[in-house]
Specification:
325 residues; alpha/beta; 2 domains; ten-stranded mixed beta sheet
Length: 325
């Protein structure tokens, strides 16, 4: 009888587990799913993609694995997904280059509105304005006054042409009528180190890679560019709170499927990723990285994408940012 009882328990466990794993339409997923990151490993987008992939593997019982396809400002990996079969087995996790590149590149290889099916904005992080501790300002108003007084002395570092921190800096210069030189670097690391060394004493950067330098006192944070304060740095005011509305910008971590993917698959992945982003350990990981969890609907994400493409298109045009040929 004990043997029979144990067997029944095992069968019940298998049935429960199978039921939990069979939530997808038409048995999806029934084979490994490729998650494409259009950047090199270890960056914020890669970290977010691997976190989501791990949790989806656990919740669906099928492997979600990450492949990095870096190059051309993210266009290499994004184009790969755009040309993939719309069957749910190739997923894209992309940053804000997705909404910037259509205006930045003279001949962008993908259509942001037709070639992809938006699933969800999983998370977003604000950009942050920091200065070297020797810069004699503690507020954004003081920074504007200083830059207007000595524009040649205080250049502004950013991670590179076309990044949202660079465009946020250009938006700031336009709105505040500041003529300081904007210096693009080859990534967040070099830009932050230049600010720490005092070579470019002001910097607009993404929050996650800048957080350790702010926490360590090597850089002074003046404001975040999000609409609300960052959960990671609740004491740092927003640009609007600093008296400079209309400066909102953030770095997104969005999930996409190829255009033409059935709505049932989009809805299923949206629901599964929402569950992932609601997990306590995931929320803690995001907070540690400086990301705020969003996990919105496909419709909300689509509206967000349109607004972001339009906004950064205007900034690129008004700031006369050279297009990449």
């Amino acid at each position: 009888m004990k043997v029979v009882a144990r067997a029944l328990v095992c069968v019940a466990a298998v049935i429960v587990t199978s039921a939990a794993w069979a939530a997808g339409p038409a048995g999806y997923p029934n084979k490994p799913v490729k998650v494409v990151v259009p950047f090199a490993p270890a960056g914020p987008t890669d970290v977010m993609a691997r976190l989501i992939a791990q949790k989806l593997s656990e919740s669906t019982g099928q492997q979600f694995y990450v492949e990095n396809h870096a190059g051309a400002g993210g266009n290499l990996g994004m184009t790969l997904v755009a040309k993939s079969a719309p069957d749910g087995y190739t997923i894209l996790v992309a940053s804000s280059s997705y909404v910037v590149n259509p205006s930045l590149y003279a001949k962008n290889p993908y259509d942001a509105f037709k070639d992809f099916a938006p699933v969800t904005l999983a998370a977003a992080s604000p950009n942050i304005v920091v200065v070297h501790p020797d810069v004699p300002v503690k507020t954004m108003k003081e920074l504007v006054d200083l830059l207007k007084k000595e524009p040649a002395k205080y250049s502004i570092a950013n991670p590179g042409v076309g990044t949202t921190p660079q465009l946020a800096a250009e938006l700031f210069k336009l709105n505040m009528k500041v003529d300081a030189t904007s210096v693009p670097f080859g990534g967040a690391g070099p830009a932050i180190q230049s600010a720490v060394a005092g070579h470019t004493p002001v910097a607009f950067t993404a929050l996650p890679p800048t957080a350790p330098q702010v926490q360590g006192g090597k850089l002074r944070a003046l404001a975040v560019t999000s609409a609300k304060r960052s959960a990671a740095f609740p004491d740092i005011p927003t640009m609007a709170e600093a008296g400079m509305p209309g400066q909102e910008s953030e770095t997104m971590q969005g999930v996409f499927l190829p255009g033409g993917t059935p709505k049932e698959l989009v809805a299923y992945l949206n629901a599964e990723i929402k569950k992932v982003m609601a997990m306590e350990d995931v929320k803690k990981k995001c907070a540690d990285l400086g990301f705020d969890v969003v996990a919105n609907t496909p419709e909300q994400f689509t509206a967000y994408i349109k607004a972001e493409v339009d906004k950064w298109g205007r900034v690129i045009k008004d700031a006369k940012v050279p297009q990449i040929q």
